[in-house]
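Exercise 3.2. Students should predict the tertiary structure of the chain below and write it as structure tokens, then compare their answer with the key that follows.

Predict this chain's 3D structure.
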Amino acid sequence: MNSLARGSTAFGRTAIAVGAALLLAVGCTSQDDGRNAPLPRMAKDDALKWAKDSTAHMAELTGAELLPDTVRVNWEECVGENDEVAEDGRYSLFYYVYSPAPATEHTRMVRKLRSELPGEGYEVTSYREFKSAYASAVFRARDKKNDYSVEAETVGSGKSKPQRFSFAVRTPCLLPPGDKQQKF
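Answer key:
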């Protein structure tokens, strides 16, 4: 067999193998686009601990002080693509805390997070350095393994509200351990 024929045969086998793999993958995929895929499980206490630890870690990386009296914990219902709300205990958490760091430090802080967090498995999704109260510092990143997100940004106009720096985290939709996941 000449080299062209061997190449065609090898290509043919490769094409068949790829086609079979795609057929298996498509055949095994849920017909509901994953809306009933198993949710990650985490107790609310563990999610809150993760949020506190994550914001403290970001503050430590940037050398920022945190203001404990500014902590806000927001437990949110998970709303589906078609506005469905499950009644199985699933939730997401949005948690934030402020730092009194002056606006003159905000660019340095977001630069530090942009340089450090990708090495910890985060993908930067939004970034802007501080220019003014109307174009303030923004850093957002998503953990590539579990879809948790972290945010750090300038908050407050500086006129009616003092400009501060906010560290925040958001979880994806989570289900408490032991709770049975509702199907749609």
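Discussion points: The two ends are 56 Å apart (CA to CA). The helical segments are 3-27, 44-62, 103-116.
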